[in-house]
Specification:
Length: 142
């Protein structure tokens, strides 16, 4: 959260009309998982969502758009670090949780996030700002 704040501030002199800031938030800002303590992570992603919206207002008059992508669980190094160390029973429980909680029945692959990032970066999104875009296989719809 601190990094996003200061990085955006530091880059401002280089951003002009048409620029697009894309923050990476998480479903964890709004939706928790049983037995997965997330207070600090959720706090930082909730703050990131607020920052995204407030910056959309502050930078909009300069023609700069600010949005966030809120992924569901994605199979990356970060996730594997957490899941690989779980006991077999907990891993099986997590797999069953994903299958019943994600309408599309699986967690994401990194490429599943590419389309929204490209969209937000390009001219087709010229009137899109202050949005928090869930890309999560439908998980947060429930
Ligand atoms: N994976 C999920 O399930 C999930 C779900 C929702 C949201 N997210 C969010 O998605 C974002 C990316 O997560 P991820 O799952 O892709 O994590 P990841 O696999 O651990 O990748 C994190 C990336 O950040 C880079 N990085 C870490 N610390 C850095 C630093 N101090 N300076 C510059 N680069 C740094 C790493 O670079 P190196 O490879 O060089 O270390 C790596 O490329 C995070 O904001 C995370 O909260 C992830």
């Amino acid at each position: 959260m601190t990094a996003v704040f200061f990085l955006t501030q530091g880059l401002l002199p280089h951003l002009s009309a048409g620029a697009s800031v894309i923050n990476i938030s998480s479903y964890f800002a709004n939706k928790m998982i049983p037995k997965r303590p997330s207070s600090l992570y959720s706090l930082s992603k909730g703050a990131l969502n607020s920052l995204t919206k407030s910056l959309a207002f502050e930078l909009g008059p300069r023609g700069i758009r600010v949005n966030a992508i809120a992924p569901g669980t994605v199979d990356t190094a970060m996730r594997r670090k957490t899941v690989d160390n779980l006991p077999a029973e907990a891993k099986a429980e997590l797999k069953a949780y994903v299958e019943r909680s994600y309408p599309l029945g699986r967690i994401g692959r990194p490429g599943d996030l590419a389309g929204i990032a490209v969209y937000l970066a390009c001219e087709e999104a010229a009137w899109t700002s202050g949005g928090i875009f869930s890309v999560d296989g439908g998980y947060t719809a429930g």
